[in-house]
Amino acid sequence: MSLKKTSLFEKHVSLKAKLAEFGGYEMPIQYTSVKEEVLAVRNMVGMFDVSHMGEFWVSGPEALKFVDYLVTNDVASAPIGKAIYSPLCRPDGTIVDDLIVYKLENERILICVNASNIAKDWSWISSHVGSFNCSLINKSDEISLLAVQGPLAEDVLCRIGLDSNLLKELSYYEVRSSTYRNEKIVLARTGYTGEDGFEVFAPHATIAILWDKLIDEKTTPCGLAARDVLRTEVCYPLYGHEIHDHNTPLDAGLKWTVRFQKEKFIGKEALLKHTPTTKLIKLTCKSGIPRQGHNIVNLQHESLGSVTSGTHSVTLGMGIGLALVDAKKYIAERPCHIIIRDKEHDIAIQDKPFVKGGHK
Amino acid sequence: MANNIPNNLKFTKEHEWIKVEGTTGIIGITDFAQSALGDIVFVELPEIGKKLALGKTFGVVESIKSVSDLYAPVSGEVIERNENVIEKPDLINKSPYDQWLIKIKIQNPSEIATLLGPEEYSGVCH
Q1: Which of the listed CATH numbers 3.30.70.1400, 3.40.50.720, 1.20.1070.10, 1.10.10.10 matches domain A55-138?
Q2: Phi/psi zone of residue A67: left (φ > 0), alpha (ψ -120 to 50 degrees), beta?
Q3: Which label site among A39, A46, A273, A349 has the fewest CB atoms less than 10 Å from its CB?
Q4: How near does any CA of chain A get to the CA of B118, in Å?
């Protein structure tokens, strides 16, 4: 199967980015150095071509009712102009995908989903429209998405001519429709890095102009490797790692995204009855780098679970990891170890994300 | 991509280099390897006295996002480790041919003939 390319592909090639497959797309993994790219986002500003992500529009009188029924988080009572992170569950509580709902209006809602799940989500969501009075369109191939992240994100976007009042007014996880050079865009103060920053949904040609202008403003192009380090440092889950087709939000530290006070949503009954089988823990390791699949063991050398995401933290200068461990066998406060290449290494369990991030 | 290949070294197709000085072999990773790995953040090397077998793994270099095994270019016993690169792994990115990883006492000099010369090695760098 040939890989898809985003509209900015030629720009990545001309910048000599290292490219690799991700979610069916040939994506930039790194441009110069993962370390420099991570530091650019934490300290200055970086940008990511995340056009591989999928975009579905839901519109019509019952758009809000439908989306609120689909997802576990509360979209109905959120104010207009809010972005809401949520899992999308099956009736048995397992996770189809995690996504962001952009509530632009009650009757006009944008859903942004993972690239690798576009086809699965589309078939899942469209099969549930049923009697809801709303329409659904998949705009994934027509919309590009640029994430501009870091403490200087507002500054650079203002300098290249985005609506400066809007940039200033938008709070964290808020979204508005806007225009850029007479083209309609969607501007959101969201991202996947823990830093302040924005995501811009726009037609391909508009994103290409933004990219070039941001390069002129010395915004650092950043690849998916830096993005993965940044999200792991702030402990954001990634589909296929912490969450997947066979676990529920309650098994992966996402209880806060399941709003049982909602009258009705897919998976509610199963999740109400579900006792979590795993717990998501955050660990640091000074003598080695946690990697996906490494085992976590207790003092009796009994396996408790394994690492779901692990990397060297550029910001902290040590190994960090997220792991799913057995909810019964894992006992907080009791020391555990990570097994790296047949050797037990000390780890410290953290209560808070490894890096705080500077988001507003 | 960086691809500096010194003339006085021998190479493996897994991108280690070895400099032979009498019965001592000095081993590191090539410029091509460090560039392909990116920012190196962790190095695991064998203890002094450990016996290495030709073609078998003897340690690990890790970049932020990847883990790569190190393969012994020839058999021998570890006589010295470069503690500097364990402390500061990014030194390997800066000067891969000055920053050797280990020195070994070569067990079987005839194995040296199995290694790649600079020209042959440049053929596997792509």
Answers
A1: 3.30.70.1400
A2: alpha
A3: A273
A4: 25
